[in-house]
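Appendix B. Raw example, untouched.
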Amino acid sequence: MAPPSGRDFQASVNTTIDKLQDKTLLHIFNFLEHTEISRLAQVSRKWYGLACNSQLWQNVSFRPEFAGIVAPPSIDKAVDLIGRRFGPQLKYIELPIEHICAPVFHELAAKCPNLSHMVLDFSNAMQLHDFNDLNAFPAKLRTLCICLSDVIFMEGFMRKIYNFINSVECLQLIGTYERVTEEEEEVHETLHILKLKSHVPNLRVINFFGVKFLDDNHIEAISSNCVHLECLCIKFCTKFTGSSLKILLQRCRKLSCLLMEQTGLTSEAFRDVEWEKSRLSELDITSCEITSEVLVNVLGRIKNLKWLCAGYVDGFNDHVLESIMQNGLAKSLYAVDFQCCDNLTEEALFKFLEAHGSQLLGLNLSGIPWLVETFWTQSIPFIRKIKLVYPSLSVDNKLGHVTFQRPT
């Protein structure tokens, strides 16, 4: 490549980032975190004006522990920031307990008409603000995520917002399962799910992650008012045994995704569901204690299952895998997770990949130490379409276009 001429070289020397058009700089700033944008605002008046552009503040988090910006020190400054910088462009916001209060909600309702996704983090709360004056709340939310507290009862707050959340299509209640100690503690129902369900009739997605008090009575109640439900996640809800599964699938005919990792699901409840009448395409039973006989029975009745996650299930053995291949279920699968299934042999897995590996896009066989490099070398020709694979190898390798990644 020829070196630039004198004139071109002089032009390149005089060209700085400030010479770029504002819309180009905005596009560049849009790739940065808000903490970085806030620092860039100190460079010059021009950059300060660009940093305050509401287009850069469509998705905002005030939770610094989750990569969010440092929240303003006072409620008044938070309210000012919402009206002055965010405005109508704001679509997504995360609020910590310090800013879950009436003035903030009033400003969001008045100044942010396009706000559709909200996260309310009560997880570290010791007490709530006074919500007696709360008379306005964002009314066009499609997604509402509430991080629960072990000690704060939220019914007083929820009564104030019930009339504003009937547009919500995705409801997420994040529990405190990860904080469980070895000592048994009394579990409180800090949010009244039976009352909540009557105010959210348009739900399509429900995520009850790690909600310690949730049981089958709650699931049965939810199913009576959620005819549009398509996805239900109850991961780490250990009080759920599956006795409500049958009525859930009878009422929620559109349900296609069911995630039940590490619940108290029993083999009997799992078997008694009319799976052949369901539209289920994604199923997660990781760490559930289900027998091989029930797995063969159930997986033989589910049609068109595309994604199966059965890691850490002792009952998932060669016999179950062979039955999946024989009954035709394997023909519809495009992603499987058999992590730490110790009762699967190398021979059975190789036969599965030889017969159906060509259709797979995702594969997780991590935690099975006897699947060594020879197994993967022989299996590569059968999984050429795969996009993501977690093998049992201890190092990263690249074979063809397949990237082997270690599980995180």
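End of appendix B.
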